[in-house]
């Protein structure tokens, strides 16, 4: 299946990807025809309301990936390796990736980092686990980066990122996510790699794009990243529906007789007679 994405790159066909964290989101994405799905550690912020992705555990990734897999049985699912599940070395990374694949049915894992994670990627690929790389703004390094900021804007950082991308390809990654980097840099990396690049805040010239499903559906009006296009305004729709529901309850308009269960009149009469 991963070979399909390389073929798409060769043929100039863009790759569509979303993050999903639950059964229904995954089901809808698959029915819409999405190319692949990521169960990202961004669930810490989007689903749990955390300030960053660092608190997310392997067990939580497994829980959400199982739900996504049940909703999208035919889709290619990638599960994130959360903070400190792979950084300590090859042994830990391989054990974590293997556990996630075995328990969830996901087809691949994703991990953040460049040359420093090459040994982990090589070990996982040799063990038969496809790996998606991730460069640029890597949220697990948010404290080191000083916040969620544009990466690769200076010459030295840009050249280092190009080297990292080539190293990930050489290690066996089947694709690389490029997050929050200048579009021109993403274009250079995309041209130099034979494997696909998946952009998020990285311009139009990546081989594919990924968005958090909550962002593209417009569920949170308080957090709208620069790179996220709202394809719907579910925030307003959901709040309006809830407002209408509350009003109907308060005004005794819900539930109607058609939404209620009834017993026949004879049985009701017998019950009342018994109570009297």
The CATH topology label of the largest domain is: TIM Barrel
What is the helix/strand order? HEHEHHEHEHEHHEHEEHHH
Q: What is the CATH H-level superfamily of the largest domain?
A: Phosphoenolpyruvate-binding domains
CATH class of the largest domain: Alpha Beta
- Do you know the CATH architecture of the largest domain? Alpha-Beta Barrel
- Please count the beta strands (DSSP E, at least 2 residues each): 8
| Largest sheet report | 8 strands, parallel, barrel
- DSSP summary: helix tally: 12
Write up what this structure looks like:
The chain has 2 domains: 2-232, Phosphoenolpyruvate-binding domains (TIM Barrel), CATH 3.20.20.60; 237-275, no CATH class. Helices cover 45% and strands 13% of the residues. The chain contains 12 helices and 8 strands. The chain has an 8-stranded parallel barrel with strand order 1-2-3-4-5-6-7-8, surrounded by 7 helices. β6, α9 (183-192) and β7 form a beta-alpha-beta unit. The N and C termini lie far apart (71 Å). The mean pLDDT is 94.
